[in-house]
Amino acid sequence: MATPTTRSPHLVEELETAFQNCLSVLTSQEQYSVSDSDEVKTSVELSIQKFLDVAKQLECCFLQKRLLLSIHKPEQIIKEDISELKQELQHKEALIEKHYKKLHDWQSIMNRIQSGQLPEMVSGLTARQQPQPAPQMPQQMPANPSQAMPPPSQMAAHAAYTQGPLASLEQTTSNIGMMERQ
After folding, report:
1. Where is the composition biased (Low complexity) (predicted)?
2. Quick one: 106 and 55 in the same domain?
3. Residue 149 domain-assigned (yes or no)
């Protein structure tokens, strides 16, 4: 039996040949003229099986060389592992930075919403789509309690403005039925 070092160049050539055979079987014009589909199926399966067998042999060869390397030069394997770990760490740090940036962006949007400013996404809407600012509520309480409550339309507008565009739409649709009753 051939050693892995003498066999590997031939395995690579065999793998290339098996791959070319797979392609040629799948793309050959003769396959289209053959009326027997079982014959075509069999030739395709044989060429693919040959390719898989050679690929497994080549993988075994690489694993044997890796084993020899780990026996004779264990420091090389450790260096490779360290290099892989460093790359993985850099990738994870980049992901963390990306998530921190997104978190910062969302926190700034939430702060703008809480301070009464509309976020950039909503402020891009046209003027007719934006909720109208609510009328100012009276700052001092009048003596008459019936004057203390603003009209329902002003209350609805204020509530809709403070809760957002969807709440405004919901309030508007619920007020449609109330207008018919009056």
Report:
1. 127-147
2. no
3. no
Domain extent at residue 18: 4-72
Q: Of 36-50, 100-114, 142-156, which gets the smallest average pLDDT?
A: 142-156
Q: How many CA atoms lie within 13 A of 56 on its CB side?
A: 6
Buried b (16+ CB within 10 A) or exposed e, 45-65: eebbebbeebeebbeebeeee
Establish if 100 belongs to a structural domain. yes
- Is residue 16 assigned to a domain? yes
**CA–CA distance, 167 with 159 (Å, rounded to integer):** 8
With a cut of 60, say whether residue 134 has pLDDT above it.
no
pLDDT digits (tens, 9 = 90+) for 51-86: 999 999 999 999 999 999 889 999 998 999 999 999
Q: Are the CB atoms for 47 and 18 separated by under 8 Å? A: yes
